[in-house]
Structures are given as C-alpha cells and as structure tokens.
Amino acid sequence: MGLFDFFKKDKESKEQQQALDEGLQKTKTSFFDQLSKAVVGKATVDEAVLDELETMLVHADVGIDTTVKVIDRIEKRVARDKYVSTSELDRILREEIVELLDRNSGATGSRAILDRPDSPGSPFVIMVVGVNGVGKTTTIGKLAHRFHSAGKKVVLGAADTFRAAAVDQLIIWGQRVGVPVISHGMNTDPASVAYDAVQKGVEMGADVVIIDTAGRLHNKVNLMNELSKIKRVMQKVIPDAPHEVLLVLDGSTGQNAFLQAKEFTKATEVSALAITKLDGTAKGGVVIGISDQLQVPVRYIGVGEKMTDLQLFDRTTFVNSLFKK
C-alpha cells in the first residue's frame, strides 16, 4: 500500500467512524440518559440498579429475552466479584454485549467478497429479502456501490416484479453506481429475472450478483414457494447459489423488525442481516437483540442517507460507539 492509499484509507475510516457515531446519536442519548438515572445516588450495582438497567435495555429495544441474558450475566459478575461499583457498570455492560454479539459473528459471506480475488470462477450470489419499506432496494444500491468502488464487477437483478417502483428504483441505482441491471419489467416472472441476472454474471465474469425479491409477508406459503423457485432456477446456472440470503430490516421499527425477521426465517433460510435507518431512531439496541435471538449474523448497518453510509457491522466498533460519551 502506497502512502497516498494509506492516507486515503485512514480518511475513509475516520469518516465512517464519524458517520457511525452520528448515526447512533439518538440511541446513545436515550441510552445514557437512562443509564445515568439508574445509577444516580448509588455506589454499587445492587438489585435496584439492575432493575433500572433491565428497564433501560428494554426501552432501547434490545428485547426481553436478550435483556434477561445480559442482566443474568451481570448478576453473576457482581456475585463473583462481590463488589462492583456503578462507575464500572458501563464497562461491564459493554463487555457483556460484545461477548453476546461475538457468539454470533463471522467474517464469511458477502463481507468477504472484498478480500476475494477478482472473478474466482463464478459470481458470489446474494439474494436480498425483506418487506416493502425497509430500505431493501436502497440497501442493494449502496451494497453495489460498495463492491463497485472496490473494483468488483457487479450485476443487479430486478426480481421484485410486483412493484413497479422497485424495478425503476433499482434501474436508477444501477445507473448511479455504473453497474448493469437485468430487468424484465413489472408483473414478469421473478425467477426468470434471477436466472438471467446470474447467467449475465457468469458471462461477464462478475464477482457478485445481487438479486432483489418481492417484499410481501401477507401469505407466508406463497412467499416461501416464490423464494424457493428463485433459488432452484438460479441453481441451474450456479449449483450452490444463492451463497447468501440477506434479510433487510428497518431498525427504526424496533421489535416489529424482530417479528418480521422471525417470519422471514420461517419462509426461507436467512444467512445474514442488514439493519437500516439506525440514524433516525433511539432503538439501535434492536441490533443486539435481533442478532442474539435469531442467531444470524448482522452483516451491514445503515447509518445515513449517503451511498457510503451502509457500513460493515463490526460488533466492537458498534458497541464502543454506542458507549462513547
């Protein structure tokens, strides 16, 4: 790496850290306001402090089950260490959350595309799922920008053919990023679009093919059948496709995002999560709860409107930013 490349990478890293800090600001403000109230006038972590901490985590949309896990782990530390001061609470809480996320992490999947040699033989295929309105198509566009900017060849497939806006939006994103979009228009067979997109990816020696799919949950059986058909058709071109099923969730909806995630994991095998719109909510704790409860790694988080504001999720960086005062 040359000196220019080093400074460029360092600048990008600082810009991403700033975007993350700003994106989590609403969650941080709410989080620490409540944490301060939990420990005011207290010298040690006692039952009353733990009760307040439990309420605080639930309000941050960490979720009941995950909150109980965190409190239980802290109670064990207090019992083991005999004396834990309230000044240590944020450090202990940080450590426990990182460890919880560590159980469900992994650098494999689409985040590893940037480390792969160009055109390793066949494209890495990502099928993107999620209900309408969560930022699914925008996430695909930002993901395409991320890969394209790193010098990877990208093909997009507009297989959300039930919503005209989704097809048009993806085509616009393709033009903005500078990558081809395979589209058959609205009310066409989604599986056929996916097949052609994967075929195009193979023909042009692409590194990654990203397939958009319809965001409907009103009939789980139909959704399951549709996604299964898309998978089968893509496998005619690449037998092990898709290599990743990425579920996009709107972080600002809190526990509703968790309910959507549960429904989608019943309908198809989800291998990774992208949680969007964290910059507009105080419910950033949902990232912790969803990852813990579903045992599916969070791959990306959306912390702003810019194309660069879809970030790789790093559990330590995320938690450190959350606790940064």
TrEMBL record:
Pinpoint the SRP54-type proteins GTP-binding domain residues.
297-310
User: A single Gene Ontology molecular function, please?
Assistant: GTP binding
Q: Which GO biological process entries does UniProt record here?
A: SRP-dependent cotranslational protein targeting to membrane
Primary role = Involved in targeting and insertion of nascent membrane proteins into the cytoplasmic membrane. Acts as a receptor for the complex formed by the signal recognition particle (SRP) and the ribosome-nascent chain (RNC).
- Where does the protein end up? Cell membrane; Cytoplasm
Q: Which GO terms describe its cellular component?
A: cytoplasm; plasma membrane
Reactions this protein catalyses: GTP + H2O = GDP + phosphate + H(+)
Q: Which Gene3D superfamilies match?
A: P-loop containing nucleotide triphosphate hydrolases (3.40.50.300), Signal recognition particle SRP54, nucleotide-binding domain (1.20.120.140)
* Origin superkingdom: Bacteria
Keyword terms of this UniProt record: Cell membrane, Cytoplasm, GTP-binding, Hydrolase, Membrane, Nucleotide-binding, Receptor
Principal location class = membrane
Read off the Pfam families from this record.
Answer: SRP54, SRP54_N
| Gene (name only) | ftsY
Can you name this protein?
Signal recognition particle receptor FtsY
Q: Which InterPro entries match?
A: AAA+_ATPase, P-loop_NTPase, Signal_recog_particl_SRP54_hlx, SR_rcpt_FtsY, SRP/SRP_N, SRP54_GTPase_dom, SRP54_N_sf
Q: How does this protein assemble?
A: Part of the signal recognition particle protein translocation system, which is composed of SRP and FtsY.
Which species is this record about? Hymenobacter swuensis DY53
Q: Which family does it belong to?
A: Belongs to the GTP-binding SRP family. FtsY subfamily.
Kindly give the membrane topology term recorded for this protein.
Peripheral membrane protein
Tell whether Hydrolase is among the UniProt keywords.
Answer: yes
EC numbers, comma separated? 3.6.5.4
Spell out the HAMAP family in the cross-references: FtsY (MF_00920)
Where along this sequence does the record place binding of GTP?
130-137, 212-216, 276-279
